[in-house]
Amino acid sequence: MTVRVTVKDHGAKRARELLKRPRKELWIGVLHEQGSQSHPSGTTIGQIAYWMEFGFDAPNGKFIWPRSWLRDWLDENEKRIGRQLAADTARVLFGIPPESESKALSKRGGVFRREIQQRIIGVPSNWAKLSDVTIKNKGHDAPLIETTTFGNAIRYKVK
Length: 159
What we know:
By secondary structure, this protein is mainly alpha-helical. The chain has helices at 12-20, 32-35, 45-54, 71-94, 101-122, 132-138, 149-152, and strands at residues 26-30, 56-57, 63-64, 154-158. The protein has a two-stranded antiparallel sheet with strand order 1-4. Strands 2-3 form a two-stranded antiparallel sheet. Helix 4 runs antiparallel to helix 5. The longest helix has 24 residues, at 71-94.
């Protein structure tokens, strides 16, 4: 009796090669370059991003409630993000032709950036309402939207 054995790699060799390389990371949010820029309010964009994410004690003694534009988005989308990144990993390992890690992460970063920007524009219902004084000064009741500066500062980077 003759036994015939066929070995098919199915990406194991590529996976071993990729594991030897330094890992790529996707960074998203208000990154250093944009965060250090001036905001029309007189502070930096990074400081505005931090204050909105975590809340702060305003100079007038009032507490400004957090309006999480990043952490809540991550929490709400955690499972979907995991599935999407797993699918991206499969394309990197098994795609024909395989996609590069940088290209896969870059495409995903663009999608995530747009989703976060849309979250800000959509004003989630769990965000604290603006005070009447703030609404009067701004001319509208949308938090985080005074100019396009903050939303445009949200970027991604593959490292």
